[in-house]
Amino acid sequence: MENKVVDKSQLGLLYDVHDKPGFFTSIILGFQNILTSFGGIVAVPLIIAGIAGCNVVETAFLISAGLLASGITSIIQSAGIGPKKFRIGVGLPTVMGTDFGFVPPANIVINTMGGGLPAYFGATVLGAIFEFILSFFVKPLMKIFTPTVTGTVISLMGMSMMPVAFDWVAGGVGNPNYGDVKYLLVAVIVFVLVLLLNLYGKGMISTAAVLIGIVIGYIICIPMGLVDFSQVAEADWIQLPKILPFGINFELKYVVPFLAGYLVTIIETVGVMETLGQVTGTSMTDEDMVAGVRADAVGSFLSPFIGSGPVQSFSQNVGLIPLTKCASKHIGIVTGLLLIFMSLCPKFSTIISIMPSCVLGGASILMFGTITVSGVKTLLQVELNNRNILIIASALGIGLGVTFRPEVVEQLPGILGSLFGSGISAGTIVALLLSLVLKESPQHTVSEIID
């Protein structure tokens, strides 16, 4: 099945969903996707390794497994596999990876419940089956995802990522030199380069603006003493994947903490799918949404067998599409293949992993900002009566509040703590509930409220 796509010229795209850029262009854009998401792909395996008390070898294997799982699932999500009714994958350019939302339940299973990594992987598989079943109920839920809700969620996704971007700009959380002027200078240089190249560059220069900006920023960091290449020399050249490297435990009690995490994943993935439709000019159907969620479930089911955790569609890479003017799903597939290659070559992946976070931070400001603007474009098509204003204001207020002050909801019990623990999921839930509860009141428009 092929998605219905608008004329690429209407969105200023150089490549639409079904275009196939040339070999070198595809490689460059694929690496650009990897640079954008690499931190997210490797961060969770590092955290899980710390929670489980892994040694250096085990930690390195968890990171490689995360890259491999990301590559395989990105290909599935981007390509879209199977017949229309049972398709797995949305068929739009997407990067998948391990998600931070599963770290709290992982800690409970590994440490509090004492199940270790085998229980963590077993809970991931059982939870993925739960998500796969729920994917069949996504279609009726789409009726309540109105433009008011989706526009708000898309805007919130971009806004809520800004603290992450600025933590990267400042050198990364936990860095003893957080906010050092050197980090800020590099981030500003990258930001300005990406901005100018995207706006004034021609052809491939404009398309690869983010990658060019990141590479130049990386090079600038070397004489500034911000890059340590000793870690590259210590890394192996080749490392083959293994099946069930840490074992697996399927006890049902371990899956309970993960159920809320998978509910949140469904909510956030639907938001990512909506955003993808917006920036690629694709008319998203209910079947597309279901296929996207189903790919998350299948990916999370497969990943533990190669030593990785639950996966989810990344939102940060969606921001690359309007910047690169490339909506080709072929690039998503190429990105997946490159990730698989990198998972087999730890030395090569280490070169990227040692990149100072301030470089990525400078580029991320624009990427996350474009996601926000995509949501605003959707909201501009909504009648801003009193009801819709209240929905938007409430969802953005609560979503951003939880994003900036997550400790407010830390003591919520059980599933409530998981559902409202993320600003994106909290804002989405509020928008959905208010959309269902509040009655239409078209007599109060925004102009009347202002007057």
From TrEMBL:
What topology does the record note for this protein and the membrane? Multi-pass membrane protein
Q: Does the keyword Kinase apply?
A: no
* Intracellular or extracellular location(s): Membrane
Its family remark reads: Belongs to the nucleobase:cation symporter-2 (NCS2) (TC 2.A.40) family.
TM region(s), chain numbering: 23-48, 60-81, 119-138, 150-171, 183-201, 208-227, 254-273, 331-354, 360-380, 387-404, 416-438
Q: InterPro entries from the xrefs?
A: NCS2, Xan_ur_permease
* Transmembrane listed as a keyword: yes
UniProt-recorded name of the protein: Nucleobase:cation symporter-2, NCS2 family
State the UniProt keywords alphabetically.
Membrane, Transmembrane, Transmembrane helix, Transport
* Gene Ontology terms for molecular function: xanthine transmembrane transporter activity
What are its GO cellular component terms? Answer: plasma membrane
